[in-house]
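Before the break, one more example. Copy the sequence into your notebook; we will annotate it together after we see the structure.
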Amino acid sequence: MKKLSFVMLVMIIGLSFSISSFAQEEPKKEKKEVDSTEHPDKSGQVSDDKAFNTICPVSTEDVDQEITYKYNGKTYALCCNKCLKKFKADPEKYSKRLSEDGKSIVKSK
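Here is what the structure looks like once it is written out:
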């Protein structure tokens, strides 16, 4: 009887570890869906073009290529939705901060 109880206990512990490790597996990262109301350009069009810049014109951090905004025919990538909101509020100010290749911030004169 003691052996049976011990075997059952070992099986229960093993099963609980299996379930625990299965539950902790990370889900695959899903691609973000872009809402057409979130990224329109001046004409209300959603940007399908690839952004030219690699640095956020607002925060100067690396960009997320899925967070974009089209302004004056050019697609700009930003690092986060907070910066996107700021860029939308004054795109002229922030677009001027980027170098022509979009890889650095230019100092204002």
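Helices lie at 2-23, 81-89, 91-95. The radius of gyration is 25 Å. Try to locate both features in your own notes.
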